[in-house]
Amino acid sequence: MSRTPAIVAIGDINVDMLGRVKSWPKPGQDCLAQQLEMHCGGVGANSALALARWGIDVRLAGCVGRDRFGDYVLQHLAEGGVNTRWVQRTSNAMTGFFYINITPDGERTFFGSRAANGHVKDLHNVRSLCQGATAAHLVGYNFLNPGPARAAKQIAREIHAHGGWVSLDVGMAPAQQIPRKILQIIPSVDILLLSTDEATLLTGARDPRRAFAALEKAGAREVVLKLGKSGCLISRNGEPQHVPSFDVKMVDSTGAGDAFVAGFLQARLRGWSPEEAAIAAAAGGAAAVSFVGAGETLPGSREVAALMRSQRLRGKWDAVRQSALARLQNRNSRPKRHT
Known about the structure:
339 residues, UDP-N-acetylmuramoyl-L-alanine:D-glutamate ligase, four-stranded mixed beta sheet
């Protein structure tokens, strides 16, 4: 039996408190949710949990506080199959915490602080962390603070030194706050994943295809441009290729981008074609918006396979859907390995 693919991820680990409200409040107005839900969140934790649900060996680096919130997220990550041995803890800040306000259309607004996420220190055991890993996944938030930035670069160097590849998911705040730094990093990664809004902030181009071309000109080797419910653009034969998505009712978009990224990365770790990877990613992102919350509630391979079985795609993309679905069904039918 083939070895489980391994990836190293570094990124934010937060507690997410979710509230579903009837409408967005006016200034000074009370905004009450009937109930609150607490989940493990943050772009690093979400991506790691989603990858683990795809059956990937995930090793997560980051930082949480020495508090009960830190205990909470570490427990949920471990229960979700994520290796948290390299998650640091600090007494200088609380665990990252966000309140997420969700309106009936599924849109969410974040209020909170990254807190301990900015306190990652240099990794003294980076060789052990990266041993046997095929790839590393970085996020733009790593580069908002010096400590996480150094740790991310350590991981990337180690993975590249052993012939692996590195992906970067940009994120909205980094695209807004440090666009020049992100553009300098782009040529040093192998797969660049970002949304249209992030691409516009980095390139100034509002048209997705123009932004795509500008990113390639800036040195991006492989671009995956997320178009939300419209699917994505991927690099293929020197041109951007549009990949459709799946039609679902949006309940909560929290973590959908992370589920999309996990679907794409797991496919590339397993040697799928870029088209199959994009279809898996689109299905993962679509499945994620059907649920409230992210983290431990994000979909895995079985939920994505169910969605892919339920809908056909137009033109040549239905053959790609069937090919990716066959890969999923074959993997899901295998007996689980016991360790």
